[in-house]
């Protein structure tokens, strides 16, 4: 007889991890620290679970995901909204840490999300630096807005000092990011390939390296879906709704959006595609998102082929590159 499948849900909070097993319904908890991770991995390894699921919680889930992956346990990270919708669909309206863990275990059995592959230490370091840089840029924007909103000279001086300090921190992080890239020849090579594309600068290239390490290993549909620019149907019966894009990795999409706004002016391939769409009557925003999708598909192919960017002006849009609207 084959062993019955076992599914595990882990609800992550700041102090502890609530763990539930499905279909047995057994629950337990461990501390959210190295000792707790070791205890959890030892216990789960003995059970040989089919799949473990936890929610994305703003990065708080990363240590336990890394520990589980290094222990060769199959773990997947899922969107909290998906799990909450699943809970409502199954009639579970109450919400506690224990109940959330049980719902996650049931979700693992019913949906079976894809197991997350661990990123190597260098990519994790790049990602941490890139996240911190985005945080500094966000703080800089907030302080500049405050500077424009105040007329008190004493407060303005204080804000100006803080802006100067944040600008220094941003420059330091830029230097650390480039040093981290140059320390590894393979990563440096990928960085140079990305920067060969008109519209892709060092910041966007670093974002792609850290937040989209799968680039070059996916199909055109997969990479568009991962970034969140794949048009999705909204049809029902005789109604044919407008195709829209949503989901995906927001930080990658934001960086590529800014790169695409440059590319539609200075990249012959993307510029030609944009002008074709606008000439056909597509709204400019829809055309821009379609160009973003084309851009990331070309970048994916470029990295896979290990070749620098080659302009292809006038290339007709492929049948599966139909456009929708952004939401």
UniProtKB/TrEMBL annotation:
<protein>
    <submittedName>
        <fullName>Transposase</fullName>
    </submittedName>
</protein>
<dbReference type="InterPro" id="IPR002525">
    <property type="entry name" value="Transp_IS110-like_N"/>
</dbReference>
<dbReference type="InterPro" id="IPR003346">
    <property type="entry name" value="Transposase_20"/>
</dbReference>
<dbReference type="GO" id="GO:0004803">
    <property type="term" value="F:transposase activity"/>
</dbReference>
<feature type="domain" description="Transposase IS110-like N-terminal">
    <location>
        <begin position="8"/>
        <end position="149"/>
    </location>
</feature>
<dbReference type="Pfam" id="PF02371">
    <property type="entry name" value="Transposase_20"/>
</dbReference>
<dbReference type="GO" id="GO:0003677">
    <property type="term" value="F:DNA binding"/>
</dbReference>
<dbReference type="GO" id="GO:0006313">
    <property type="term" value="P:DNA transposition"/>
</dbReference>
<dbReference type="InterPro" id="IPR047650">
    <property type="entry name" value="Transpos_IS110"/>
</dbReference>
<dbReference type="Pfam" id="PF01548">
    <property type="entry name" value="DEDD_Tnp_IS110"/>
</dbReference>
<keyword id="KW-0614">Plasmid</keyword>
<feature type="domain" description="Transposase IS116/IS110/IS902 C-terminal">
    <location>
        <begin position="192"/>
        <end position="275"/>
    </location>
</feature>
